[in-house]
Design brief:
2 copies of one chain form a homodimer.
Chain A: H1 2-29, H2 36-42, H3 47-50, H4 57-77, H5 85-102, H6 104-112, H7 115-122, H8 130-148, H9 157-176, H10 179-186, H11 193-209
Helix pairs in contact in A: 1-2, 4-6, 4-7, 4-8, 5-6, 5-8, 5-9, 8-9, 9-11
Chain A binds a DNA duplex through helix 3.
Chain lengths: 216, 216
DNA sequence: ATCAAAAAATTAACACTGTTAATATTTTTA
DNA sequence: TAAAAATATTAACAGTGTTAATTTTTTGAT
């Protein structure tokens, strides 16, 4: 038993070594360029060794995706102390956007790419998107509390949460895909696209504020 | 002169033949799988011939991206007849979403992938994203008219337009990347993710309606 | 300590990918 | 008809993910 534990622990260590090498190459040159062969060379093993620990490349992508969610969840966890739910909702949005701008590669892996998602329905282990579920439920919970304070009255909580997520994700995703930059340069004569993004977010928050039931 | 015209016209014909083959393979098996070699085989030429007409694969991607915008612009053009600007705004959103759901591959090429966008700053010809600019300006124009009718008072038009775009794009993008499906199954116990998307859109529209200045 | 069994890692290979240089073919022009 | 220009091809480079077969290493029992 003890021996088996040690064995599986060593196996986990190797998995982590591979993942760290993968992460290094991933943040340096992007997902596509972080090839199995490069990862193997980084830690001094043959390419096929990788397959002894990870099913395929999307398996590694999913593991990195999970690491990204660990970071995002940590960032969010410090927001539970924000008592006012609407302030918390705004903070969630700002934190989400900051994360996307600071770690665009990770954001892409977590919320844009299909590859890590394919791993979910294909693989045996986990059947649901646990990471996403947790983050989304924090948003739902916050919106529920907002509703109790008079915001979003008469609106479905799930739909409101989904819509709020879509708005910030849309902004981040357009930023990362450089579509925002292209429109910013030409149509809005505004080079600072981060500012553009932030202003759009503030406009959205302003709209949300107007849903507040004030006649009471 | 006439001869040169004919020559360049023939060249355009070949370009179109290549593009049609590329489009066929693209809609059938996706962008990644639509390889240069397959495109060449489809029209019975050698792979290198493709490079005599298109600089690289992202050049083809951009051409398809442009074709997609031609369709989207046609869809939008029939909305200019909608006189009420807020009704038109809603119609723009619905049309955009329908397009994304009906042609997810094209949507990905037009609004998600970086590849066709890279073509813009790299290549010589066009320096700006003309397609995107036109569609965005239609949105800006409509929102300006909405503002004159009392909507979005005190909000920046550009920011409002960007935010509206981001919201529908976010929904479409989460749908296409299957993230919406994964959250829908687990958190919202709702399999019909198209309905989920539509409901979120309606919730957003409801929020927009609440920005209307009624005390007059 | 030795030797067989199990585990781990490796080499070689398959079937692809985008892309380019050098070469051959076809078409056009004089 | 011959030279020039345009067009297309073959061969090759440098990669990619992935698998089967083989070798090396480690482990556990005698």
């Amino acid at each position: 038993m003890k021996a088996e534990d040690k064995k599986s622990k060593r196996k986990e260590d190797v998995k982590k070594t591979i993942l760290n090498a993968a992460k290094k190459l991933f943040v340096e040159e992007g997902y596509q360029s972080a090839s199995i062969r490069k990862i193997a060379a980084e830690i001094g093993v043959s390419p096929t060794t990788i397959y002894l620990y990870y099913k395929d490349k999307s398996d590694i992508a999913y593991a990195l995706h999970q690491e990204g969610f660990l970071v995002l969840k940590t960032l969010f966890s410090s927001l539970v102390s924000v008592e006012d739910p609407f302030e918390r909702l705004k903070a969630i949005g700002r934190t989400y956007i900051r994360f996307a701008l600071e770690s665009p590669d990770f954001y892409e892996l977590m919320f844009i790419m299909k590859d890590p998602m394919d791993h979910l329905d294909a693989d045996s282990g986990e059947e649901c998107w646990e990471e996403g579920k947790q983050v989304f439920e924090f948003l739902v919970f916050t919106i529920e509390e907002c509703q109790q304070k008079g915001y979003f009255v008469g609106s479905d909580v799930s739909s409101t949460a989904l819509q709020a997520w879509a708005t910030v994700h849309g902004l981040c995703s357009l930023f990362i895909s450089t579509h925002l930059q292209k429109v910013g340069e030409e149509c809005l004569s505004q080079e600072d696209t981060e500012l553009l993004l932030e202003t759009a977010f503030k406009t959205y928050v302003h709209f949300l504020e107007q849903t507040k039931n004030n006649h009471k």
